[in-house]
Design brief:
The structure holds two protein chains of two kinds. Chain A is an alpha/beta fold. Chain A has 15 helices and 22 strands. In chain A, helix 1 crosses helix 14 and helix 6 packs across helix 14. The two termini of chain A are 15 Å apart. In chain B, 67% of the residues lie in helices and 1% in strands. Chain B has 25 helices and two strands. In chain B, strands 1-2 form a two-stranded antiparallel ribbon. The longest helix of chain B is centred in the last third of the chain and has 27 residues. Chain B starts with a helix and ends with a helix. In chain B, 50% of the residues are buried. Classes of the chains: A alpha/beta, B mainly alpha.
Chain lengths: 447, 501
């Protein structure tokens, strides 16, 4: 598969690197030769120096043979223009990153499809959505719906008081026989473990769990936590993520938003009607205290600086705030941040990559999620008519050992959690958890 | 060269004020006014009420003056208008037109004193509806029609007439519009100002015609229907009988009440209602609040009347709604009122006189939008006391109101109250007691005119017995209220007349 990425350091390069690992043919287009030189040294891909809105540059990148064109620069008009040109130059599918969430409405999407932009991605909007999801499920630190909410996947932390501590996966299913969950992966000390029946749970484990939506509460109890309602919310940073989050939540929760830039504050106050906007520095703890930091139920740090976000979240935790979410742009920071106690990390690159991956993965993948803290990916496949998987049971299906596991099956309106004897059928939706190098093998089984 | 010579030279070469354009506009308006007299003249000819000669003579004089101004003094006018001049234009037009409009009263010998004629005319053009005429049944029908026509023209704004006709004014039209419809933050209906004004006139005329037809086919006489329709939609309030609207049928009263409520609504919102843009109508915060306040006040009055009377009648409710609609739209109609008049009703009425109608409507008063903006500003002020670094904005319909605009509204409210106080001061000197003086001053600056609240407090409804000085004071208040004060105040400021540079 040939993929061209017009992108910069923010999202584009990360996407390029990750996709190279998955054995795709990547070409990156960017005007800055220095940046591209660095990227080319680190990664096995082709770079082309030039402006992506120039047809000549696009032809140089072999746009006519490209299966997927991703324009994920910071500048929305350039992305749209690039995609329109690429489509006219015979790119099969185009995806543009946008910053104005207004364009995501079905009406506008149709309009852009006619223009040649097949898909629109707004990372800030997805990040804001993730924040609102997390606030509704305070125990979970990552949260993802499959097939419109029939199955949910979440990352949950095993507390000291958890009743399953010290028990193995097998024991868990024996004791709680009515419980239908699938533990797809455990993060322990920075490692990703795909559990088998003898794996023993430890306190501090972060477990990726798939279950039916109605069993989430039981699972949360077993993990030793319970959701609490968030009434007061403090957001540091009035950038796009903070703005979208406040916009979606301001009528349900009392929000205080702290932003340093005066002009931005004024724009925010024009946009938001029920949010208290404070002009000040988020690192000024005295100010945050004055504005009621100690009484807030959740603290969300989404300023432009990852360091500020991590630091202020740490501070917030010291004041006993139970839910803290930090925007961390530097992917290297993610593991460290979780180690030092910030429970949830939002990363725009990961979010965008997750979202875009659904257009990429071979076979009939319908959605996917790249997980933070691990390089593994969760993909939802539709089983094809002549797929290998329809001929044998799951036990006989030779999934790469320790690298991939089936997390759940959605058959029509029904959800199944797989056992060794489950037989997949055509049109089943299968949720697969896989490490990057197993991805291709897995995809072949379902196509 | 001495300064005076310099000034004189400048006057002839490049006048600071575009006098020619002023004469031209004034001339055109007078011609329009003379043509509008066709209606009263035909009515008086039809009824042979004896006023036809006076009316025709007045029309001819107005026409002659108009043609003279337009075709001699206004020849070669450049269609350029500066910000400063637009106020001056507005003020001079609003002084001259009502004065000329007094001629029909004098020529038909309906009133004998110039003060009374001017009072009636100012009251008409400013849509106040305070009247010094008594024995209305005996007055010539043609003249009664003229009274209502003057309100109808004044209700929409004299200058809007010109703006609609003069395509050549371009940005000048927007300035005039702003000076006359000052600070309504009106959303334009059309990108071109001239077309915008035509659409506004269309809504206005449509409403008038609809009410006229309803009243006429509801069994009222031609003159009653016509005059009342024009008085209602312009929120003027001149009536054709001494007893007010007491002789009208229940159906007619219902129609009038409905149209009074509509007349207090922003014309842009009305336009949306008629073109079926309901989403915009529902989203208009001012419209929603206007309706809520109207209904709550009517309910409050119904309850107070019912308690005072000891029983509840649907008539009481209907009267309360009529009374509140009449006050809020600043029509100022009255009818046979209940025998007991509780204090609560008087107080509610008095407060509503200040509040008035929606911005961008033909009604007067401080207007809902202004009060909403001020209330939100004050609320924000209290928030900043608790959160000193909070960044807040005043929003109406999702649009941020700039601080300079808020200060402008504060100055406006201050001037408004000052004018009420000064007017009341003059009235108390003339021998009125304080409550009546304040009511009357407020009713005139809000262009409400006669109000039962005054009646209840003991004064007579007619303005006949006012001393001339009080009458002129009331005229100033009416004009100040109609032109939203700034145009009037700015032209008497010395700084306004100082040469530039």
């Amino acid at each position: 598969m040939n993929i061209i990425i017009a992108g910069d350091g923010e999202v584009g390069f990360y996407l390029a690197k990750s996709l190279t690992l998955l054995n795709y043919n990547i070409t990156v287009v960017h005007p800055n030769s220095e940046l591209l030189g660095r990227l080319e040294k680190e990664t096995d891909l082709l770079t082309i120096v030039g402006d992506s809105t120039s047809p000549k540059v696009l032809e140089e990148a072999n746009v006519q043979d490209c299966d997927l064109f991703l324009s994920v620069l910071h500048d929305e008009p350039i992305n749209l223009m690039t995609c329109i040109l690429a489509k006219k130059l015979k790119a099969k599918k185009t995806v543009a990153r946008i910053t104005n969430a207004e364009l995501l409405s079905p009406k506008h999407r149709e309009m852009f499809r006619d223009l040649g932009v097949d898909e629109l991605v707004c990372p800030e909007r997805i990040a804001a959505k993730e924040i609102t999801n997390l606030l509704n499920h305070t125990v979970a630190t990552e949260f993802f719906d499959f097939s419109g909410g029939l199955l949910t996947m979440y990352l949950i932390r095993l507390e000291e008081e958890s009743p399953v501590k010290g028990k193995s996966v097998k024991e868990l299913s024996q004791i709680y026989s009515t419980l239908q969950v699938r533990i797809v992966a455990i993060l322990r000390h920075g490692e990703t473990i795909i559990p088998h029946s003898d794996t023993v749970f430890e306190a501090g484990d972060m477990a990726y769990i798939i279950s039916k939506a109605n069993q989430m509460d039981t699972v949360k109890k077993l993990a030793g936590g319970a959701d609490f309602e968030i009434k007061n919310l403090m957001i540091a940073g009035g950038g796009r993520i903070g703005r979208y989050a406040a916009l979606t939540l301001e009528n349900e929760k009392r929000i205080t938003l702290v932003e340093q830039d005066r002009k931005r504050c004024e724009d925010l106050s024009a946009l938001l009607s029920n949010t208290l906007i404070i002009n000040g520095d988020a690192t000024d703890i005295e100010l945050l205290k004055e504005e009621g930091l100690t009484n807030t139920d959740a603290f969300i740090a989404v300023t432009d600086s990852s360091e500020t976000n991590v630091l202020t979240c740490l501070h917030a935790r010291r004041f006993g705030i139970r839910k803290t979410i930090a925007l961390v742009e530097n992917t290297g920071f993610i593991n460290i941040s979780q180690d030092i106690g910030i429970d949830t990390i939002i990363n725009k690159k990961l979010i965008t990559a997750s979202y875009i991956a659904r257009f990429i993965v071979k076979g009939a993948a319908v959605s996917s999620k790249w997980l933070s803290g691990t390089n593994a990916e969760l993909i939802e496949f539709v089983v094809g008519r002549h797929a290998t998987a329809t001929r044998v049971t799951i036990g006989e299906l030779r999934l790469p050992d320790g690298q991939a596991t089936i997390g759940g099956i959605i058959r029509g309106r029904e959800t199944l959690l797989p056992t060794r004897d489950t037989q997949l059928r055509e049109m089943d939706k299968v949720i697969v958890f896989a490490l990057p190098n197993a991805m291709d093998k897995v995809a072949k089984l379902f196509d | 060269m001495s300064t005076s010579q310099h000034k004189q030279k400048a006057f002839f070469r490049r006048p600071t004020f575009n006098f020619r354009l002023a004469f031209r506009l004034l001339g055109m308006l007078l011609v329009i006014m003379a043509s509008s007299m066709v209606l009263p003249v035909s009515v008086s000819l039809y009824y042979s009420d004896g006023s036809q000669f006076g009316l025709v003579a007045a029309a001819l004089v107005i026409l002659a003056v108009g043609l003279f101004l337009r075709n001699f003094l206004g020849v070669g006018a450049t269609f350029e208008l500066h910000e400063k001049e637009s106020f001056w234009f507005t003020a001079i037009i609003w002084l001259v037109i009502p004065l000329m409009g007094a001629l029909p009263y004098l020529f038909t010998s309906t009133v004998t004193s110039f003060t009374d004629a001017a009072f009636e005319s100012f009251s008409g053009f400013t849509t106040t509806g305070s009247s010094v005429l008594t024995g209305l049944e005996g007055k010539p029908q043609g003249l009664l029609v003229w009274r209502s026509v003057s309100q109808w023209i004044g209700g929409m704004g004299l200058i809007l007439f010109v703006v609609a006709i003069l395509h050549r004014l371009n940005e000048g039209s927007a300035r005039l519009y702003e000076a006359e419809f000052s600070g309504t933050l009106q959303r334009r209906l059309h990108p071109r100002m001239a077309r915008n004004v035509v659409l506004m006139w269309a809504v206005y005329s449509g409403l008038t015609l609809a009410l006229f037809l309803l009243l006429y086919f509801g069994g009222n006489s031609f003159v009653d229907s016509l005059c009342t329709a024009m008085s209602t939609v312009s929120t003027g309030g001149f009536m054709t009988h001494d007893a007010g609207l007491a002789g009208f049928s229940d159906f007619s009263m219902g129609c009038i009440t409905l149209f009074m409520i509509l007349s207090g609504v922003n014309l842009a919102v009305l336009f949306c209602i008629f073109t079926g843009r309901w989403r915009q109508v529902r989203a208009d915060e001012e419209f929603v609040r206007y309706l809520i306040v109207l209904l709550v006040a009517a309910l409050l009055c119904t309850v107070s009347f019912s308690i005072a009377q000891g029983h509840l009648q649907w008539r009481t409710a209907a009267f309360s709604l009529f009374h509140i609609a009449s006050t809020m739209s600043t029509c100022g109609f009255y009818t046979a009122s209940p025998s007991v008049w509780p204090m609560v009703v008087s107080v509610v009425t008095f407060l509503l006189i200040f509040l008035g109608a929606s911005a961008g409507s033909t009604g007067g008063g401080l207007k809902f939008k202004r009060i909403m903006i001020l209330a939100r500003y004050v609320r924000n002020y209290f928030v900043t006391m608790i959160h000193p670094r909070a960044v807040l904005s005043v929003k109406v319909n999702g649009t941020v109101i700039s601080n300079s605009y808020v200060t402008r509204i504060f100055s406006y409210v201050f001037l408004y109250l000052l004018f009420v106080a000064l007017g009341a001061f003059v009235l108390t000197i003339c021998g009125y007691d304080i409550p009546n003086a304040f009511c009357m001053a407020a009713a005139n600056i809000s262009n409400l005119g006669p109000s039962p609240v005054i009646n209840n407090l003991g004064a007579s409804l007619d303005y006949v017995s006012l001393l001339p000085v009080a009458k002129w004071t009331m005229m100033v208040l009416m004009l100040a209220g109609r032109l939203e004060i700034f145009a009037i105040v700015s032209i008497v400021l010395p700084a306004y007349w100082r040469p530039r540079n």
